[in-house]
Structure formats: C-alpha cells, structure tokens
UniProtKB/TrEMBL annotation:
Gene3D superfamilies: 3.30.70.2390. Residues 125-215 form the LytR/CpsA/Psr regulator C-terminal domain. Keywords: Membrane, Transmembrane, Transmembrane helix. The chain crosses the membrane at residues 61-80. This is Membrane protein. Signal peptide: none annotated. InterPro entries: LytR/CpsA/Psr_C. Pfam families: LytR_C. Residues 94-125, 229-249 are annotated as: Disordered. It comes from Streptomyces lasiicapitis.
C-alpha cells in the first residue's frame, strides 16, 4: 500500500506516539529568513519574499488636508485684496471715525480779537516826514508828492540826518513812536514794499519815511490799495468743526 499523493516526495517519519507516518501533520520547519512572529505560514523560499511596508493612507490624508488649507488661505487673501482695491475709499471714510457726520463752520470774525486790535488810522490821519538817505537827489520830494496824492498828510521833506544818511541798505525805514507800531506804521508800510519798521522815543504821532539805497519807487497804487484793504479787514477766528447729534468731531 503506497503513500497518498500529497505525501509523495516527503520523507517518511514515524510518530513517536502512534507509530505512523505523519509528515504533513507537523508544521514545516522555519526558515532562517522567516520574519519573527510569523511562524511557518509565510515560509520564504527561493528569491521571493513578502515586502513589509508602512501604511501610506494616513500620510496621504495629512498631505491632502495641508494642501487644501493652503489653497483656501491663498484664495481668501486674494479676495480681500480685490475688495480693498474696489472699496478703498469707503474703508478710508469709515476708518476716519465718521467724519461725514461733522459739519465744519466757516471762519467768523472773533469779537474779542477785534476788541483787542487797535483801529487803524486813515491815510489822512497820518503825517509823514520824508527823508532821503541816498546820494540821489529829488527822491524825497517825488515820494512826498505821491504820498500826498494817495491821501497822506506830508510834514517835513529833505535829507536824512547823519544817523541815517547813506546808511540805509534796504528800500527804506519806517520810524515812529511805539504807539504807532500797530497803527500808523503798518498803514504807511502798504506804500513801500520791504520797508523796515523801527521805533524811537518820540512822543508825537508823526512818522518818518527814510528812503534807502535800494529805493526805486513807491508801490503801485493798485497794489497799495489792496494791501491797505487786507490790513483793515479783521482776521477771522480759526474754523472749528461743530458736533452733530451730540458727537464731538
């Protein structure tokens, strides 16, 4: 009686218990290449063996999530930039704290400031002494005649004293009492551009016009009249924004 077909080619072995051949009843001997813990189930024979790899599913999921977040962030940033470009003016207006609700009042004359300011005299109320401090002759008479045509009262006309003769470098000097600093001297100054204002210890209300080496002529009458009108116009108080609905602007 021969061996079954599945036992052909296997060396016979006797079971030490029952004394029968049991070649397939025992596990195949483990090869030295068999991974530990796998027993004889995955016996490695020849040049083929199972590959042990780490699972890649979790890594792919993590990479996909990171990439999705990056793309979403870029899209959101780009959208914000486009919104800023097309609605920049509105954002600036809102960031200004609602300035549209504030109403700016026009500058109005300040009564207290007007009370502190001394009234300016008219040209006919100012007596002007005209002196020539240059080597050129006839300048004092010509300037005095023109001032008289413009309404000023004329006093003395002649050459300057030694204190000023040939020592005035600019167009001229306006000289008067300290009380004339904000009254007669500014009015006379509208007739000669660049003239220097000085004061002395005189008591009277007369003022002196001392012509200097750079003097050529008085200011044009049109320009002098505009300067005089601007000087007589009271300076308005600085404009201040008013509050609306109890809100301070």
């Amino acid at each position: 009686m021969g061996l079954p077909a599945d036992r052909v080619g296997l060396p016979p072995s006797n079971d030490h218990l029952v004394g029968i051949a049991a070649a397939r009843d025992y596990a195949a001997p483990m090869s030295m290449l068999t991974p530990p813990g796998m027993g004889g189930k995955y016996r490695i024979t020849g040049d083929k063996y199972p590959r042990m790899r780490r699972p890649r599913g979790r890594r792919r999921i993590v990479l996909a999530a990171v990439a999705s977040l990056a793309v979403a962030g870029l899209l959101g940033w780009g959208s914000l930039q486009l919104i800023d470009v097309f609605t920049g003016d509105d954002n600036k207006a809102s960031a200004a704290g609602g300035t549209k609700d504030c109403v700016t009042q026009k500058a109005q004359p300040d009564p207290a400031r007007q009370a502190r300011q001394k009234p300016l005299p008219k040209p006919g109320q100012i007596t002007v002494n005209v002196f020539n401090a240059t080597p050129r002759s006839g300048l004092a008479k010509d300037a005095a005649d023109e001032l008289k045509k413009r309404g000023f009262a004329i006093g003395k006309v002649g050459n300057a004293t030694k204190a000023y003769d040939k020592k005035v470098r600019g167009t001229g000097i306006l000289l008067g009492a300290k009380a004339a600093t904000d009254t007669a001297l500014p009015v006379l100054g509208t007739q000669l551009a660049g003239a220097e204002k000085q004061t002395d210890t005189r008591k009277g209300g007369e003022v002196d016009l001392i012509l200097g080496s750079q003097f050529k002529d008085l200011a044009k009458k049109e320009d002098a009249d505009k300067a005089l009108a601007t000087l007589a116009k009271p300076a308005p108080a600085p404009s201040k924004p008013s509050s609306v609905d109890g809100k301070n602007c």
